[in-house]
């Protein structure tokens, strides 16, 4: 029996029809015990989710229309909250009744919320959580006057307090998915949702007191990567009373990776994947700290510190000058009020375990963005990654080698496969490299890590190269691809910034790497020469041009001048600080010395060409004095001997090349649509893409142009290529 025919009976179910009707069902009515006592293997593919949504669309529509009168959705929420309060004691006694009913209740709630979010205005969705006085008297509970806050708090209680095992895995997954769906109102809006009731409650409601514990548990779900125990086979839905019809969901075909989203590895651990999604959504929204917006989830992720061992982890709240510490237990702070806006939330977490996961998993958009956020925003984690001061540095060195090992190579492989990667993922990977390159110790260490074989680098069979050399090769390849294909000036500026940061620490460059550096300059020089000729033809006889009326070729010429100058600065920096350690680069310069001829007298490049000329003249004299018809090995020997007495003082010193990544003023404009597009494409949730307003959904949705990424150069302030450089 196919999926479509098997779920068609849901709309005729007596319990569901009564739930969606106009008659009010009290939260104390025994019918809830019957309604929520079904055995149901939850749908795990988008096709199954879509089939259920289509079969219950009329019921959900009726529920939404009748909710102002019946308040049955609010009653269901109250039932769910009551079940959650009984779950933790039941897990200790291995009584699964409350887990079973809470999971079923949450499945129904999630299903209804999904319909509300996609088919109603965001304020209408928020009103489904309103409680009138009569309803509160009936329940003999006020929930603090805010059912939405209490509901979100219950979801957090599940995620934080209920242990994850085979019995509770589905409950955890439903809780995380429900929070994602609750926040998905943003996908169906064009304006930012931070001032809406749903997000205001998340940020400032009583539930926000648990933000630190929630962030910690989501990170734990990510690092533990527990697999979903899917028994397979048919899905049976039934109820002992016989009022539910038996439904069978068949698995008729295996969905492709594109259809279901994500890799096979992630499909086996949906809780880990969805936890990353929820974490990224929580920290990417409401990020306008300068405008007085406080996001406790961002504070928690940006400030958590290292723990010596997981058993000693604790949860802290720092309020003004007073530090409060509580156990990592939801019930311990159950009655707490909302976090004041001047509170910093933090917790302890195992950095080694977290970094080990980044080193071993297949990198995708989600994990790359999470790694970027941690490196950019969490100072302690970044220091840990870059630390080399004691025995821990040996462990970390191994971790970095694993991160870039030929088997995984996540960041470099993303850049290497730029033609097959989406622009946002390329940007995130490149920015991670740029952030790492801000540290001189990292820049030195990468040249000490030897890679025996890099099978995926197909331009040339390289049997022995340093990690630093491979980074240079991949970045150069990215620059050339960008200049010939995408022509994104911000991308090559970021590439050059990473190379510039590393240049003063280039050591023992492989001959092929040295050759590629010179080839890049030669490639750019030829393009520049052609552009200059084109500009001369296009501007001949036109003396009254304004910047607005300049041909595009003139703008391209100016951009290429900046790129050429930057490459010359990189070569200068390498040779000024590390010439004796880069004799292969000196050999490559001598071999291709003609490429610099036309730049000696050019006013834009004259100062930088001076040092190159000094080096060429010095070593050329030594080679010429050694005789004619020297072999490559003999020339290299002459260069090596001449470098021993190399007069470094003959070179002109230029300001150090130091670039620092600076996030744009409004990161939400980039990250919110990007992360939601990733969630929509990867989560096991069916979305009605025709109703998405936040971004344009197409099969190649991820190829939308990213926003500008800003580079901040630590030197004298000036403007170049529309990028802030200082």
Automatic annotation (TrEMBL):
Keywords of this entry: Lipoprotein, Myristate
Any one cellular-component term (Gene Ontology): Golgi apparatus
Keyword Lipoprotein annotated: yes
InterPro entries: Dymeclin (IPR019142)
Keyword Lipoprotein: yes
Recorded superkingdom: Eukaryota
GO biological process: Golgi organization
Family: Belongs to the dymeclin family.
The protein's name: Dymeclin
